[in-house]
Design goal:
Rossmann fold; 2 domains; six-stranded parallel sheet; 29% helix
Length: 333
Amino acid sequence: MQAMIYHGPEKVTVEEVDAPSFQPNEVLIKVESTGICGSELEGYLGHSSIRKAPLVMGHEFCGRIVALGDQVHGLSVKDKVVVNPLIACRTCASCLMGKTNVCRNRKIIGIHRPGAFAEFVAVPYENIFQVPEGIDASLASLAEPLAVAIHAVKLGLQPLDDLLIYGAGPIGLLCLLAAQQMGAGKIVVLDLQPARLEHVRRLGGIGIAPMQIEEQREELFSQGIPTIIDCVGVKATREQGMNLVDSGGTIIMVGLGHDKSDLPVNHLVRQEISLIGSYTYTHADFQQAITLLQQGKIDIQGWSETRSLVDGPAAFQELVAGKSSFSKIFLKP
């Protein structure tokens, strides 16, 4: 089969490899579409300590089951499915509380085992969600990043609250769409790329550059900024966010751009600002994402495109260089 292999910083190639074997509790999926995640761009650049070369990345995907392990039940060959790539142990304290996203023993498809930038991928059947035949494979592949956005929005947003989002990449745009579905008030999204800001405006948000928010703050947020979702996670966004959020406000940290940042802790304490980390999603978040996709509530027209897997290396180069006019690129084997 064809697979795109990560060999180290800025080195990915499409090669012929053996199709994966699968365990009795696993299924083999023929991949129909896989989205390129921002975290994989960081991995491509060599900024991810958990992605070890050689590796087949790819954890946002849709496909069809082509083979079943002996212990699999409730699924059939030819079923159209999406996959929760986070494999939880289901026995630790976090899992028993329903917080499988912070399982102490978690493994992730595309990081700790081969992922879906390939023609076939093997996955545990417990991680599979069936999707309707009529749903487009690339749209269905958004279930995973949409679940990330839903989880983040639910952690900090109250109905009718205004919201500031850092980053108009895929997660930022999906946070915008998820927040709209959850009854947010005004939503402002900050990004440096004009093309991405156009996507924000077309989706019903207010898109401006980060350097403009200081001068437009009173006009845009006359009652203050109660909630910020940082989908970038670099020093500049964290520092500016701390200065912009209301007293008693909440900042949801999603982006993993920089590991370390200096934060004004005394300011945080005196203003009772809540900082909340948001990591992936729960089973319920993933199911909610699929429901929104099935209902046609998530619009990907204009800000995404689908390419062939063989074009994957070029797509990675374009995305890290900021040369793509699309926020999301899907690869089809």
